[in-house]
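Folding follows sequence. Below is one example:
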Amino acid sequence: MKIAAISDIHSNIYALDAVLDNIKVHNIDMVVCVGDLVGYGTRPNEVIKKI
């Protein structure tokens, strides 16, 4: 089983999209998000919706 851990997104939807695309390429079975979804960036609503 392949597990990806993501964190410290801080409302950066562009980086999140890139990471999620990479996760798809590597056929990851499970994604664990350990926190800091929003905060500094300008796209908090988009990040929450996507997660």
